[in-house]
Design goal:
Number of strands: 36
Strand content: 35-45%
Length: 535
């Protein structure tokens, strides 16, 4: 273990052979019955002192809290991906990760190790999110692979490859399900026949079906060429409304020539294939869900931005509203190295902010509008959509100050008009440091839960109450890892030292008042994304 300021938070974790019963402080609402499961990096250190370079290179650990009345049990288990199992034997990654190159695979024969492939092999280290299709559960990252896992045991299941099923070289790790139709949508690029974006529609997974059966029935509903020569946008997420999929091109791009060079050198990580081209702007590509038709109107931003997470999107009076958490550039990704995180010497982060874009659904080729006119009508917003030749130039309404990320909403409002989202505050210095926040998108008011700088809060996940009377009627779950450097100054119960124990936090969805904590003795790894599954 490294003796550095944040070594405890970002250390290599361990499995639990048996579940741990958490010590609960406060009263858990009796209606919260289910499993809160998360995926995230868990192993950064291999044998012979080899350390992965980037936080998102860490091999996946699945962790879950089972909530049954007043009792909470905690479990964690490694995802037994091919990448992880081979790395344990070789002592180094055998395929490239986001920030760490791949090394010769000692589990293969001599010649096979060095045999080039059309596309450099990617990892099945699915360490970014957990999601469900029907009654099946999956872990995913931003490669072509997803891994099934058992929600009860956390045992690793089958591996599925989007290249073989859909021809997509990578996929977003934030698929979105249309609750009205049951169809799940996702996006991903294909490289071999030109640089193109693809939108796929996965049919509902019925109880008597296997994932293989529904993936075979999955349709590519749209294929769209990249707007730029030789490069294609990196996309962590996308937007969905009742009738449309919105794919947002950004200037953080995969460069085709760099990927090809990786075939020969095999000495690169995924970050080596990416480049920030600040001379480009963001493009909003809108596709009809029912037909797969690309809307002809071109939407371009006035200024470039980098983003990871779309907050939500919906249709309003012939406009599409898209809320996003945006950064000035992708430096946040480049600086998430294990060395920086463990040292606690954070870079001067360019904090994200919540913004709202409004896309007027007007065919400017069939209507006569003056140059420079704002085409957004019928909606109250400070966002603008200015006619500029054949394009509409978008500038956003600012929803929040800088410093909020990992946005989540009441998932019953995905694709619908909504009022609130929840987020975490940056771990670096600022007014929102290590906090959980609730944003009102109508009046921009922010409520904050913030108790200690030593609390590294996880993604806030909203659980709706059984008979909700409002959008925010429910609770927030967040897994909190502490660095042990500072006492909690905001909790009355001092029977357990919060400076030495990690915990599950439960907050009121309306006020962010603290309801309960469930302390555990074991290390709680910093997960990336998770879901709550009611019993």
């Amino acid at each position: 273990m490294h003796d550095l300021p944040l070594a405890r938070v970002y250390r290599t974790t361990e499995e639990l052979k048996e579940p741990e019963v958490a010590e609960v402080v406060g009263t858990i609402p009796s209606w919260i019955q289910g499993t809160f499961v998360r995926a995230g990096p868990g192993v950064f250190d291999l044998k012979n002192s080899f350390q992965m370079n980037h936080y998102l290179d860490g091999y996946c650990i699945l962790s879950k809290f089972e909530i049954n009345g007043s009792e909470i049990k905690f479990y964690k288990k490694f995802l037994e991906s091919d990448a992880f199992m081979k790395a344990k034997i070789s002592g180094k990654p055998t395929v490239c990760e986001l920030g760490t190159r791949g090394y010769p695979d000692t589990t293969k024969g001599f010649f096979t190790r060095y045999l080039p492939t059309i596309i450099p092999p990617l990892s099945d280290n699915c360490n970014m999110c957990a999601f469900k299709l029907g009654n099946k559960y999956f872990a995913a990252s931003e490669t072509s692979f997803i891994r099934e896992f058992d929600l009860t045991t956390l045992n690793t299941g089958e591996k599925y490859d989007s290249i073989k099923y859909f021809g997509l070289n990578t996929t977003s790790c934030h698929p979105l399900t249309d609750e009205e139709t049951g169809y799940t949508y996702n996006i991903g690029p294909s490289f071999c026949t030109g640089l193109k974006y693809n939108i796929i529609r996965i049919p509902p997974l019925l109880t008597n079906q296997t994932p293989h059966e529904i993936f075979k029935k999955t349709k590519i509903i749209a294929t769209i060429p990249s707007s730029w020569n030789g490069v294609i946008s990196f996309n962590h997420s996308f937007a969905m409304t009742k009738n449309y999929i919105v794919l947002i091109e950004q200037p953080y791009v995969l460069v085709a020539s760099r990927i090809l060079s990786g075939i020969l050198t095999r000495n690169q990580s995924v970050l080596d294939w990416l480049e920030w081209r600040k001379d480009l702007k963001n493009n909003f590509l809108i596709v009809e869900k029912s037909t797969g038709k690309l809307i002809k109107t071109e939407f371009m931003t006035s200024d470039p931005f980098f983003f990871l997470h779309v907050i939500n999107a919906y249709e309003d009076n012939n406009n599409i509203v898209v809320d996003i958490s945006i950064f000035p550039d992708p430096s946040v990704i480049l600086n998430l190295t294990v060395d920086i995180l463990r040292s606690g010497k954070f870079y001067e982060e360019k904090h994200p902010e919540g913004v709202r874009f409004v896309l007027p659904m007007i065919n400017i080729q069939e209507n006569s509008f003056d140059e420079g006119v704002n085409l957004i009508f019928g909606i109250k917003t400070l966002a603008k959509g200015i006619k500029n030749g054949s394009k509409i130039i978008l500038s956003p309404e600012i929803l929040t100050p800088r410093g909020l990320e990992m946005p989540t909403i009441n998932r019953n409002y995905i694709g619908r008009k909504y009022n609130y989202y929840y987020a975490t505050g940056s771990a670096t210095n600022g007014i929102f440091r290590n906090s959980i926040l609730k944003v009102d998108t109508t009046d921009h008011k922010i409520i904050k839960w913030q108790k200690s700088k030593s609390y590294y809060v996880g993604e806030p996940v909203f659980i709706q109450s059984p008979n909700p009377v409002s959008e925010d009627d429910g609770v927030i779950l967040s897994a909190v890892t502490t660095d042990g450097s500072e006492e909690d100054n905001g909790h009355d119960d001092k029977s357990i030292s919060p400076s030495s124990k990690d915990f599950l936090l439960i907050l009121d969805g309306k006020s962010l008042e603290e309801i309960s904590r469930a302390y555990i003795n074991t290390h709680l790894p910093q997960g990336v994304h998770g879901i709550f599954v009611p019993n």
